[in-house]
Structure formats: structure tokens, C-alpha cells
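Before we proceed, please read the two lines closing this message. Tell me what the C-alpha cell row says about the fold.
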Amino acid sequence: MITIAPGLTYLARADWGAYAQYPRLGYAVAAAQRTEAIVHHTVIVDSDATKNVWETLDEVKAKMRQLQVIRPDLGLDVPYNFVGFLMADGSLIVCEGRGRDLTGAHTYGHNTSGIALSMQGNFQLDIGPVLLSYSGHISRFWGWLRYDQGLTNLGSKRPAWALVYGHRDLAPATDPTACPGTYLYALLPGLTFAKAKEEEEEMKLYLIKGTKDDVYVTDGIHKRRANTMLGELEKLGVERKVISVADGFVTWLLPFPEGPGD
């Protein structure tokens, strides 16, 4: 069991007690081949009133073992690379399915290039605004895969409107799907590949507001005129996330472009 960040826990197969008679299936995939982050839902709900929210670790472990055998047509194993559980205490538990290094059985035509994170539940069901509160944990998990687990190309192929795909975006026209459900799908544009907090602090940039001639962007060392900087970022398609606007500063999370300052 690994604590990736406060409120975000990762369980390997041994941690959730995978049935030994059903080993991991799939073929080995090089990290560089992983280019697509794909979100699914399992459509398996809790038996209580909170259908998409889970209360105990024992529930999580039991549902993971259920996923090993529930789709024999896809092989006796969890078909997804990872499975996420929204916990009642506001945390996210992510469990290893086929993992980051083996093909999955989740998205036709994208089981080698894609990494699937399937959220446990049926997200055609509305659980209200609480769903948004888990987006930071989901973003950090995607970031953990990219920045901490060596999948540096993950997300290099993506839809125009988000950094990750929903299953429905990649489904064949002859076999459409609503997956990952209407309400989870609506969350996707806000997801990122979030770095650890200490790394985010190192990536802060500041847009200094002054007169027309002294508006510039700085990371505290380098300095660029704002229009030059923003034009470069737009051309590069760099991810940009406003995290605060106060006291004359706009703080973003993004890499500072290389090259001499203005």
C-alpha cells in the first residue's frame, strides 16, 4: 500500500488480495507506447444509498476480486489497468488491475496505447457536486503515472477539449457507449496531470501587472514580456492552470519556456 498524496492511496494486487489462480493477463508494453489516458466506469454500484461512494477498505478489496471474474469474455482478470474508488471520507483509493506495463481489455483498438482508470460505480447516476471534490485526487493519480512512474508520453494523444479521454470518445461508431457515464464525463475537462505539491511550487510563474511596458512573466529568476510568453505557450499547447489571482499576481502552474529572457 502506497500513499501517493494525502487522501490518495494506491493498492497493488497483493494489497487487495487478488486471487492467485487468476494472474495478470496481457502483453508487455513499453512505457513510451503509453500515450492515451482513458477514463471508464465499471457500472458496479454499492448496495447502500450512496451508490458510487464506498465506506470501507474491505468493500474495495472484495469488489476488486469480483472484477477478476466478472467478465470471463475479456479473460479472467481485471480488464482495466487501474480501478478507482471514491471513499466516503473524501479520499480516493486506486487499485492495480493489469497495471502500467501490460495491455488491458478495456477500449477496443487502444489497449496498448491507452491506460484505463475505471471508477467503481455507475456515473449515469448523479451523486451531486461532491463528485467534483475528488478531481484533485484523480488528477494527482494521472500525474503520478506520468511523472513518478515513467509514463512520460501519457496524455500526448488527447481530445481537443481535455487532457484525458472518456471511453465513449474512442468507441467504434458501430458499438457506441455512454461510458464513463454522463456525470463523470462532465468532470474530464477539469482533470490534469498534477505533480507533487513540492514540484508544483517550483513551477509557479507570476504575471506582474504594471504599465503597458512593464507587464511581464517571471519565475523569480527569468523574465519574459507577457505577450511574448503567452504567445509561445499557446503555440506549444502547454497546459495552463490558474491557481490564484491576488495582490496583483496571477499564479499559474506551467513550465517556463527555455531560452533567453526579454
In short: Residues 205-215, 219-223, 238-262 have pLDDT under 50 and may be disordered. Residues 203-253 form one domain.
